[in-house]
Specification:
Shape: elongated
Distance between the termini: 56 Å
Strand order of the largest sheet: 2-1-3-4
């Protein structure tokens, strides 16, 4: 089989991924074909991978971009191994460039206040506050449906629609099911002011998807909010700010990793079970450190 035929098979296999992820895979894999040629899949060699990387480097692509494209090719070959179309992946560690470990910048307390007050409508404010108080990824935010939100009230669980038809009570907690990378699920708790803002937003919308916009619309919206207050802003900066604030507030690393949906770099943390009370404390601490 030709690479292009296998790519179409692979793309149809991963249709449950986000629109943004699918676009990246399609772009990366067809760029791979354009560079090395549409060969038979069992004729791909390590030299082809080296050529792919060299061409990307000649085009001044960032190391992080090259690493992502090689990861896309490697994931593609892992799928082909499962289908028994090939026996191994030609992508090795030696092909992957070293990526700068520069820590992303985060917002100061003053900048956080400016960003929130620069929001022009309830949609913008809800998105910014949720990202700042939970560290949720853009793709995760956009995948939330109304059915993913459950309200805990005095030990009893209700759908979010129940609350919308009545009113929020002081001790109500929302538990939001999040679908993260690799389709891994986790549950994020929301309470206090962030929950009030989310409920206010849901009362004026009637779509099943809580945020029925594209990734590009979301990114553009956040960038524009930053422009209004002269702050360089993008979705990941909000996520990194949430992690930085949580660390400063004294939250344990393993709790932050669970909150953000990260795989732990520490072997022991991989097996640590983080309870909902700890996650609730983390999100409450974040919202208290932000003037909403």
């Amino acid at each position: 089989m030709k690479i292009s035929e296998c790519v179409e098979l692979y793309l149809s296999y991963i249709t449950d991924r986000s629109e943004h992820t699918l676009k990246n895979y399609r772009t990366d894999l067809f760029q791979f074909i354009n560079i090395i040629g549409d060969k038979d899949i069992d004729q791909i060699s390590k030299a082809d991978i080296a050529k792919f990387r060299m061409v990307l480097q000649s085009k001044k692509k960032k190391s992080s971009t090259i690493a992502r494209k090689l990861a896309s090719v490697n994931s593609f070959f892992e799928y082909l191994i499962d289908l028994e179309l090939v026996t191994s992946s030609p992508v090795s560690k030696s092909h992957r460039p070293k990526i700068s470990q520069k820590i992303p910048s985060s917002l100061s307390n003053e900048e956080i206040h400016k960003v929130i007050t620069s929001c022009e409508n309830i949609l913008e404010k809800t998105v910014v506050v949720l990202m700042l108080t939970t560290g949720i990824r853009s793709s995760e935010l956009l995948n939330i449906t109304r059915k993913d939100i459950l309200i805990d009230r005095d030990g009893k669980t209700f759908s979010v629609e129940t609350v919308l038809n009545s009113s929020l009570e002081e001790n109500d907690i929302a538990f939001v099911k999040i679908r993260g990378k690799g389709d891994k699920e986790r549950v994020l708790p929301l309470s206090g002011k962030p929950l009030e803002i989310l409920i206010s937003y849901l009362k004026i919308t009637d779509t099943e998807k809580v945020f029925p916009i594209s990734y590009y619309a979301l990114r553009r919206m956040i960038i524009n909010i930053g422009k209004r207050c002269n702050i360089s802003l993008h979705p990941h900066k909000l996520r990194h700010t949430a992690a930085t604030l949580a660390l400063k507030s004294g939250a344990e690393l393993r709790v932050i990793q669970e909150l953000l949906g990260h795989a732990s770099p520490l072997t022991t943390a991989r097996y640590a079970k983080v309870g909902q009370k700890q996650l609730l404390k983390a999100t409450e601490t974040l919202s208290k450190n932000i003037e909403i």
